[in-house]
């Protein structure tokens, strides 16, 4: 992958998760919340009350900063993949109308992981 393209995608992913992570930490958020089904709202409410969303926000902010600054980006891209997969699964099962952002997150994350593939060679060696 071209290093300039990878840098742009890495920074885009970093900004994406940094903004959405910060939005989760601000009371009532600064981004508008779309309407959700009752089931999605109940699930989201349970995650909020259990402080799970706060932990996800912290992971997103740390990952976003790491990707923007290119420090520990390969590690944070792997950790962030669990957030991306969960976001896609949430939207597939409970809020199909909002899947666009989650799909973008997943695609950007996959591209960044592919860009860091040389960093994972030792990890994947048998």
Task: Please provide a written account of the structure.
With 126 residues, the chain is mainly alpha-helical. The chain is built from six helices and no strands. It has one domain (3-24, 38-119). The radius of gyration is 15 Å and the shape is elongated.
Number of strands: 0
Order of helices and strands: HHHHHH
Distance between the termini: 25 Å
Overall pLDDT confidence: 94
In terms of DSSP E residues, the strand content is under 5%
Classify the secondary structure makeup into a structural class: mainly alpha
Tally the structural domains. 1
Shape: elongated
Tell me the major beta sheet: none
The total of helices stands at 6
C-alpha Rg, in Å?
15 Å
Helix % is over 70%
* Low-pLDDT windows of residues: none
Keywords:
single chain, 126 residues, mainly alpha, 0% strand
Nutshell version of this structure?
With 126 residues, the chain is mainly alpha-helical. 76% of the residues lie in helices and 0% in strands.
Strands, helices and their partners?
Blueprint: H1 3-25, H2 38-49, H3 52-69, H4 73-94, H5 99-115, H6 121-124
Helix pairs in contact: 1-3, 1-5, 3-4, 4-5
